[in-house]
Prior knowledge:
The protein is mainly alpha-helical. It has 11 helices and no strands.
Amino acid sequence: xxxxxxxxxxxxxxxxxxxxxxxxxxxxxxxxxxxxxxxxxxxxxxxxxxxxxxxxxxxxxxxxxxxxxxxxxxxxxxxxxxxxxxxxxxxxxxxxxxxxxxxxxxxxxxxxxxxxxxxxxxxxxxxxxxxxxxxxxxxxxxxxxxxxxxxxxxxxxxxxxxxxxxxxxxxxxxxxxxxxxxxxxxxxxxxxxxxxxxxxxxxxxxxxxxxxxxxxxxxxxxxxxxxxxxxxxxxxxxxxxxxxxxxxxxx
Length: 251
């Protein structure tokens, strides 16, 4: 989600609107006409009328309300709306086809099960060819346009190896990597001495754990984000009779 929709696709949108780091389109023809981009934005806004809420929140108008976009919005645009909204918008269809290649790569990344041979063969070839096309279409092998190749472009090449080492990305990114990064961010607000802040935070957590065990204060000193509903369950108002009935049956 963060590498492709929130980084690469955001950069592509800036390129397609001529707002990427002061660069023009060079020898390419990827900048969308204002009317074409307004049409993309209108399609995004109208899509919310027929998109089930289970897919996520409504995607705002890309042309006029992009400042409201979140990671979820960029993901929905990348996978569901963009392939339709961007069709026949470019003067040269090769840019649209390259975008679809990125969508296919992202869909593979979100798959819960991938064949090892596929990842090490066909999928790796897809990623490499996509990066090569990106360099050809946007970098254009011009040193003056080197800013079109940020680290996120190179990071795409590591995706197949990461999947082979760690498994499908949905299995570990959200509940391990992202949560751990969030813990680190909350543990240190100092840019000058971050490691001292980390050490102090770990010491305080160890002290708190020791006090909870020593004096049986697990609930009183619980600093986790777990709410009472997760610990004790949730009581729906108006259903007290059902709870009483269950207690009488179980006990």
